[in-house]
Amino acid sequence: MNKEKQIRTIEVVSYDFKWKEEYLKEAEKIRNIMNEEIIKMHHIGSTSIPGIYAKPVIDILIEVNDIKNVDIYNKDMEDIGYIAKGSFGIEGRRFFMKGLYNRTHHIHVFQTGNPEIERHLNFRDYMIAHPNEAECYGDLKKELAVKFKYNIDGYCDGKDNYIKEIDKKARIWVQNNK
What we know:
Layout: H1 18-34, E1 38-44, E2 58-64, H2 74-79, E3 82-84, E4 93-98, E5 105-111, H3 115-129, H4 131-147, H5 152-176
Parallel strand pairs: 2-5
Antiparallel strand pairs: 1-2, 3-4, 4-5
Helix pairs in contact: 3-5, 4-5
């Protein structure tokens, strides 16, 4: 039997109202595992922004009491289909992905007070409040998905400057709206 190496394909699709439902279902499963540690859970990423084009992967941000305690849940998370990836390049985070080549969910866990929590929430809230910016971001992602169909690093690098610019705008917007 000839086994071919699978390659992750970058696909960006139009907004699906089911994504919110999928977030809620998955959040409940995770809460059943990590309940003692969880402070708050949030739907983040492009699937949380109505009307935007996105990779059909639900991003969930979990704020916890103590990041060191999250590792004790790795086996339970694996039992519901997740792959534990440790910090996966971001200090102070625990990352889980559901599916390797056909991912459905990403879990980003941070200890309360980590600035990444605020950054992600600010980005989401800013994009929801500024649909024209969200549309531009969606268009950029569609373009990059075609250009980098089999290259996740190229796809992510192509979004990096835009995301940094929105992060700055979002930070100012939140400060001005407190």
